Amino acid sequence: MRVWIDRLPLALRTNKLIVQLLLLLFILVLFSFLSPYFLSVTNFMNVLNQMVEVGLIAIPMTLIIISGAMDLSVGSILAFSAVAMGVGFENGLNIWLCVLIGLFTGLVCGAINGYLIARHRMQAIVVTIGMLVMLRGLVYVMNEGRPISGFPDSFYFLGQQYIAGIPFNAIVLVILFLIANFFMNKTRFGSYVYGIGNNEEVVRYSGISVTRIRFILFMLSGLFSAIAGVFLVSRLASAEATSGTNIELDVITATLIGGTHIFGGRGSLTGTFVGLLIIVFLRNGLNLLGVSVLYQAVILGALLLLAVSNKKFSGE
Amino acid sequence: MKRLLSVHEAPILIFTLLVIVLFSLVTPDFLQLDNFRLILDQNISMFIVAIGMTMVILLGGMDLSVGSVLAVTATSVGIFLNHGMPPWVAAMLGIGIGVLCGMVNGYFIAYRKIPDIIVTLATMYIFRGIAVGISGGTWMNNFPPGFRFFGQGTFLGISFPLLVAILLIAIFVYLLLYSRAGRRIYAVGGNSSAAKLAGINAARTKFMVYVFTGMLVGIASVIFAAKVGSVQASTAGNSLSFEVMAAVLIGGGSIFGGVGTIAGTMLGVLFMGIVKNGLIIAKVSPFWVDAATGFLIILAIVINTLQRARQSKRKDGDLI
User: Closest Cα partner for B104 from B130, B80, B133, B74?
Assistant: First the structure.
């Protein structure tokens, strides 16, 4: 393995983005050969439409992992806000008011995470696991496990409408990625996030409130999970208690394949976006080949281990 | 009284008694000898898995994959039995598979130095997928009567699984308190670099802990399969990892490593079992059980952090 890596041209060894793009290209070519349905505009637009939820959550997840923490509760926050929205709608509220309720619910969940983790310096992993289990339980308590559907047609615009042949939600995703990328690269906030990941103490002694930055990051995570929940409900036309289960595997794998370092301090949203494309095209190709979802989880899990254990790949 | 309160397990003991009193007031069906036997009986697998999880958390680590390892082991034991293998051999092979899963976890965590949370998150999905794959998506049942002994048999008047659990608890309490290997776990968890300077092979200690955990989960899954009588690979042990983790943290284990005892953990498991049982007997919706588990995890980490703050204050004085 080592020898093989050393023989690669220098450009390949130093620029991990090129490696990731090559991997993406490899997946695209491979599935084009394996399945006749893979290489078509319809399928590609389909993939873009389906990747939005994972992609939306991957934005704050990248920032959080760069800052040296992790959020495992995203899938449950997604379901919780989706069902909160659905329950509001069932009680006769206006659908857009319900969307606001959903987003607010996600924001509050994120704020609880942030309050415990940032303000009281509790371990992020344990707190978010607690939230993961608790919120999933509360989702079932709220609607007893039955799906909520029957939303008005105007609401389906979010997840099902195509503008000039491109899905509307994918356009929103790309715009949000560009905005987040701008914030990470050009503003002080971005530098602080990288700084916290590299050396929290130095950031604190520079007079910057680490607590506030971390708090904002977890609030963002809650908010984006809720946005993902709204888009998911709009796309599937029903709010279900099981929605978003295991989504954290996809999100974390996309982020880590995208070159974000697991110990924080390094990573980029561009990398995450390529990682996201790798994940969704892989899943789509496997779906077309008729591979069961559980085997897909095995493959993703192996990919996650590979991405982290191959130090060259993650840029060490 | 003060000395009694300074015992490490005192808070959880008080909590447990409080919950018992609470549920006894709510419903008369709770405070019955049969009900307590039921609580013990239902949580046997959890008691055994929690021993392993205690050691993992003592190292400052975490194992999210125990539920999936349980599914893999139980499913393969079921397959062995359905192919006509004698129960003892099938059980031993199952425990071997548990050890193998532990070795996979341990290899990546100890020798490849990947964070435990990532490794066990990945293996959680990998093992679950394998379990469903080898089961073909069907229920595993029709176990031979000889196998049922592991879960329902009695030995000298005591139920066999309870006997196994007590034996394992005794062995591991002894190992952790009095053996070199056990003290090494506390040393590595308390201060990894100091342990390394003292000549302790931290990687090997970590590896051994994950292997032991795999073995314990293997034993637990044999008992689980024999007790339940049918195993579904996609749901067996689904929330086990989170519940066991909650039990260890409630029992006074510190997520930062180095602090915790098996006795405390066992009280933690008992506490979780009592809460679950009480909620059901009090006819609260079963959906509340999951929500309560999550709430207990958060409560445990809050208590954990408060304790740590108090201890470090005692050590450092009030300067900070």
Answer: B130
Q: Which domain, by its residues, includes A221?
A: 17-23+35-40+47-309
Residues B73 and B221: beta-carbon distance below 8 Å? yes
Backbone angles phi, psi at B136, to 5 degrees: 70, 15
Helix locations, chain B, DSSP H: 2-5, 10-26, 33-42, 44-58, 66-82, 87-106, 116-135, 145-152, 160-178, 180-190, 192-197, 202-228, 240-250, 262-281, 287-316
The verdict on residue A102 lying in a domain is yes
Residue A279 φ then ψ, to 5°: -60, -50
Number of domains within chain A: 1
Q: Looking at the domain assignment, is residue B17 inside a domain?
A: yes
Q: What pTM did the predictor assign?
A: 0.85
With respect to residue A151, please indicate whether it lies within any of the assigned structural domains.
Answer: yes
pLDDT in tens, B266-277: 999 999 888 888
Alpha-carbon distance A184 to B21, whole Å? Answer: 54
Q: Which domain holds residue B235?
A: 9-306
By residue count, chain A amounts to: 316
Identify whether A5 is part of a domain: no
In a domain, A315, yes or no: no
Alpha carbons B221 and B52: distance in angstroms, whole number: 13
User: Across-strand partners of B155?
Assistant: B158
Contact assignment for A262 to B114 by CB distance below 8 Å:
yes
Whichever domain contains B275, its CATH number is: 1.10.3470
A-B contacts (CB, under 8 Å)? 129
* B104 φ, ψ (degrees, to nearest 5): -60, -50
Task: Please identify which residue in the block is written with the tokens 């009900």.
Answer: B35
Q: Do A135 and B122 touch (CB under 8 A)?
A: no
* Prediction ipTM score: 0.80
Higher-confidence residue of B149 and A184: namely: A184
Tally of structural domains, chain B:
1
Of A75, A79, A85, nearest in space to A240 by CA: A79
**H or E, element range at A61:** helix A52-66
**What is the average per-residue pLDDT within A120-134?**
86
Residue B55 within a domain = yes
> Any chain B CB within 8 A of the CB of A22?
no
On whether residue B314 sits in a domain, the answer given is no
Q: Is B249 part of any domain?
A: yes
DSSP A120: S
**HSE (side-chain half, CA atoms, 13 Å) at A105:** 29
Q: Which of A133, A248, A300 to probe by mutation at the B interface, max B CB count within 10 Å?
A: A133
CATH number of the domain bearing residue A156: 1.10.3470
